[in-house]
Design goal:
This protein is of the alpha/beta class. It is built from 8 helices and 5 strands. It has a 5-stranded parallel beta sheet with strand order 1-2-3-5-4, sandwiched between helices. Helix 8 links the parallel strand 4 and strand 5. Helix 3 packs parallel to helix 4, helix 3 crosses helix 8 and helix 5 runs parallel beside helix 6. The two termini are 30 Å apart. 45% of the residues are buried.
Amino acid sequence: MAVKEKSDFAEIPALFRRMTGDEKHEWAAASTLDVLWVLYDRVLDVSPDRVDDPDRDRFLLSKGHGPMAYYAVLAAKGYLDPSTLDNWTAWDSPLGQHPDRVLVNGVEISSGSLGHGLPIAVGTALGLRLQGRTARTFVLVGDAELDEGSNHEAIALAGRLGLDRLVTVVVDNASGTHGWPGGVAKRFEVEGWQSSTVDGRDHAALHAAFTQEHPGRPLVVVAEIGEGERG
């Protein structure tokens, strides 16, 4: 069950464009637009009035160095007043170039330093399991983040523990330094993850990938984006 506020994907580009200024990671953000929309519109069991509900799903934006799309979706879904976007990154704005969980309603983690989000997600999923909760944990990472060693440890641990309430979304715009022979999904599969690789702009394919059954195993969805949208 996703956020119930009335909104439409057609609104998102206009909300995105309200954030102006010297933003060096605009395309890093643009590559995540469709993934974020499908998650908040059709997948996540979250809402603006349940941000402290212990049984809500958790969404962690590890790719926090490009938060513009995240802010736009949060505004469309009622977490933020859209007017807040007009002043983003100003000294008195809650919207920084990295999201701050203390300042922005609905944000689960302060992020942007590469390689942190997936390890936090593994800990979150394990904690929810130990509490006996069925809430799911979703984390969005960029393909370049997978160069960080902390992610390799997290991938291995999640597979060994069978964290089947954990879903990792890798937005793959071919920006990694070292590349991934055989594809990004292979790195997860060898550690026991279930995987799907889909077009990162295809909403139906993304929804089907996010909602597939994966009992006993964590799930990775690789959302491929054209190389013209690197970041």
